[in-house]
Amino acid sequence: MAKFEKDFLLGASTAAHQVEGNNVHSDYWLMEHMEYSQFVEPSGDAVDHYHRYEEDIRMLAEAGLNAYRFSIEWARIEPEQGKFDANEIEHYRKVIACCRKYGVEPIVTLHHFTSPAWLIRMGGWDNEEVIPLFAAYAKYVTEQLGGELNYICTINEANMRLQIHALMERFKKQMMAKMAAAKSLEAEKKPEGMEGQVQVGLNLNDPMERMKLNAMENVKVFGDPQPHTFVSAAGENGDEIVCRAHKAAKAAIKTVRPKIKVGITLSLHDMQWIEGGEEKAQKEWEEEFTHYIPYILEDDFLGLQNYTRTTYGPDGIVPVPAGTPMTQMDYENYPEALEHCIRRVHEELPEVPILVTENGIATGDDAQRCTFIEQALAGIERCIADSIPVIGYCHWSLIDNFEWQKGYALTFGLCAVDRTTQERFPKKSLKLLGSYR
């Protein structure tokens, strides 16, 4: 086993809403607590990282890791439009100081899926007003905390809204086909394998009637049956708004602290194809990655996030063959995908350093996670040997946490948690990852 160079950023990632708990001013908190919520359970106290961050950062450092990617929660910083909470800024100042105390490089993400509820009531991520509002938030955070930061990711998985749009279009088509074929309750079951086509925890198990009731509740809470949260379907206009918000935030950060390295993260699949599927695979890659190049060409790094591959045939996505090892997220267990994505990104964006900001596996078998890590990191080593500028790897995730609409059943973490006592139980995979330094 090779070890990475001393300056290589080797660490783990979390997202504020998934680990902190009680993010009461966010859109997700409200959606989780609806009577007809699409979330299988609310986030609640999560894993109480808000109060236990030092315990978790110390655990990460003692395992040998030197980087921690985490997000600052916009809804905490600006719970009401234009009103910033100095106490919450002080909290994140302490988190950053804690990282420095233990020799860990803090890699901050300014937006990781959740948004202030007031923003969504304004039209959310389909309203162009989000661009200056997000830039103002980025500027404030940088003014307050930027002196201790070297890396900022503006937006997590900026392409997620297009991925959700494509998924929902496929979902609607399959649902219509099923309902036409069988006028029964069976027609309302989710198409098999659909949730595994997007790299976020979605729940498509709800029957159509419950979805309708949820839409009615959305009107009461947000003023819109389909509120434009960050993890909702968006077309070209919504996608462009996200890209412009990134550029505006980057400009605001650089105005305050020019030396901070700023990038964005993208959710990428290893696009493969069988005979007749190359054109569809190339089209999907263009939508998932290539068309973002003009917006990220001058960034200081790209945050690359990959979990699996997708294979295309002449009729679209090819189902995973029966018997293929799968993860709890209904993804194919395919760690080789990370190397393939790194190489393809580098071909099209050769001058921009790559920071792997998420890569991991949802499994209850930590031996399987260890094997996944070994194979993924072997791919990174080969890329570095070929002079591809990979500057770091942050595993998803540091700790088992709230996987969005899927709740707490899925386990991505290098550390388990007893959520009754909030006691931490580091897994062998954490020690394994740290041994690469």
In one word, what is the shape?
Answer: globular
Helix content: 40-55%
Number of helices: 15
The level-1 CATH class:
Alpha Beta
User: Radius of gyration in whole Å, from Cα?
Assistant: 21 Å
Tell me what portion of residues adopts beta-strand conformation.
5-15%
* SSE pattern: EHHHEHHEHHEHHHEEHHEEEHEHEEEH
Strand order of the largest sheet: 1-2-3-4-5-7-10-11
Biggest sheet record: 8 strands, parallel, barrel
Mean pLDDT figure: 93
Oligomer: single chain
Name of the CATH superfamily? Glycosidases
Domains, number: 1
Number of strands: 13
| Parts with pLDDT < 50 across at least 5 consecutive residues | 186-190
Task: Please name the CATH topology.
Answer: TIM Barrel
Keywords: Glycosidase, Hydrolase
Active site: 358
Organism: Waltera intestinalis
Enzyme class: hydrolase
Structure description:
This protein is 41% helix and 15% strand. Strand 10, helix 14 (366-385) and strand 11 form a beta-alpha-beta unit. The protein has an eight-stranded parallel barrel, surrounded by five helices. The protein is an alpha/beta fold and 437 residues long. Helix 3 packs parallel to helix 5, helix 13 packs parallel to helix 14 (366-385) and helix 14 runs parallel beside helix 15 (428-434). The longest helix has 22 residues, at 160-181. Residues 186-190 have low confidence and may be disordered. One of its GO terms (biological process) is carbohydrate catabolic process. InterPro entries: GH (IPR017853), Glyco_hydro_1 (IPR001360), Glyco_hydro_1_AS (IPR018120). It is an enzyme of class 3 (hydrolase). Keywords: Glycosidase, Hydrolase.
